[in-house]
Amino acid sequence: MNQHQKLAYYFILALCSSSFIALLSVLLFFLCRNHSHRQLSDESPPPPAKPSARPHTLIDIYTATEGFTHRRVIGEGRLGTVYAALSETGELIAVKRIYPWLVLSNNNAGFGFSSVIKSLSSAQHPNLVSITGYSEAPGERIIVMEYAGAVNLDMYLHQNPDGAFLLNWKHRVKIAAGAARGLQYLHESMAPSVIHGCVKPSNILIDAEFIPKLSDYGLNYLAAREKRGLVGYVDDEYWKGKSGQGNCKENDVYGYGVVLLELLSGRGCEEGWLVKWALPLIKEMRFSEVLDPRIEYPSDLKPLMRMGKVALACVGNCRKSRPVIGQVVAILNNLETQL
Ligand SMILES: Nc1ncnc2c1ncn2[C@@H]1O[C@H](COP(=O)(O)OP(=O)(O)OP(=O)(O)O)[C@@H](O)[C@H]1O
What we know:
By secondary structure, the chain is α+β, with helices and mostly antiparallel strands. It has helices spanning 3-43, 58-64, 100-105, 107-110, 113-120, 153-158, 169-189, 236-240, 249-265, 273-283, 302-314, 325-338; strands spanning 54-55, 73-76, 80-86, 92-98, 131-137, 140-146, 204-206, 212-214. Helix content is 45%, strand content 12%.
């Protein structure tokens, strides 16, 4: 082999080994990417769908609710009256008619209503009530939603005096985990992210399989000055700023923490009393005193104690030190498999 041939030989050898290394690195890169994608998709919620809310005429809504008859009223909330109605195709739907005085007294209620509702309708998740339509007319703002069953968590926990429909621990953890996943979707998948604004038991609807669905999300702007129904489910900071300014993810996490305490204790939030009562007991390791006395203690207390600690972190005084909802989901998903 002459000098020239030797050089060519070394050159080809070097080329082969470097392309081998390059090939190896490309392979490694794809392997790692797939792995981290899989990890990411296990932890993170799915991306939002396309906005799907469609406009309805007031006449359509009038027909669906039989002229807003009281016989079709499911309940009254901070923002309006909810009706069980029938769509043109005969499907059961829920219709929320915003109180006329809120529409008339609040500029926000008029401003951008349809665009807010359309944007909220891109939230498609098994733990969220879907928004399917809306109607706007002078003095009228109406939201059309999927009908998500007749029962909410407040009814199970607090409107059940003879204890006939008590939720067992398995169902309670399932509800806590599902509600956290719904909230995580609003906070982390929606762009811009959606603040629920009123996380509490009556806004967690429960189906026959005990799957929870959050309702009433992203609507606080309709009633920025309305305190009714919020007391006890928002932190102290909420009331300090200008109205509506305290509406943030950390505040949703606080409300979620209160719901966890209600699930554990079976007691109502009583305008903040529950947090003051339960927190020291959990801190002092007197956890069994917190648990709902109406149902049997589980043989293994650890999963519920873990849930208590999550609640403790969520209702902490300092907003910055509270967990983000994704961290809560990771723990609750795990607990769900343990009970
Ligand atoms: N999509 C729905 N499907 C079935 N029932 C619903 C639906 N949305 C709301 N409801 C029921 O209607 C009633 C009123 O709900 P709404 O959310 O307006 O008020 P609330 O939760 O009692 O108070 P707030 O307005 O403070 O959240 C509740 O009993 C709730 O369970």
